[in-house]
């Protein structure tokens, strides 16, 4: 075999190995993405049922939630805020677009654009509707065999609100 033929075969082998590694990474990424999609669906369902326990289970007990203003809150504080929201709302719609998924060792970070509409009632005749659009980084890690959110960094957030009088 000539030197040129050996070089050609080595290049083909390297390309094949690289393709296999990329294929394995893509398959693992797809499996992780599907698992996270399931967790997002579970979060929406828990929120719709007003099930704070199920919603809380998606977050690590060591959660760091970095708000848009730079203030970091823990899981206890986040759940207090969520519980307040759940007690007042009567309708919620939520969706997200995953812009990126970065797998780094044992952690996965999603870049998400979330949109939510929340309707709440005050005194039964005064209603308020919020439309929230949040862009953030959500870092997940495996804890006790489950993916849990360990860190959230809100990059931007816009909130629109309007009041409606009457039933």
TrEMBL record:
Upper lineage: Bacteria, Pseudomonadati, Pseudomonadota, Alphaproteobacteria, Sphingomonadales
Protein name, as recorded: Nuclear transport factor 2 family protein
Family annotation (SUPFAM superfamilies): NTF2-like (SSF54427)
InterPro entries attached to this UniProt entry: DUF4440, NTF2-like_dom_sf
Transmembrane region(s): none
Domain called DUF4440: residue spans: 40-149
Organism of derivation: Sphingomonas populi
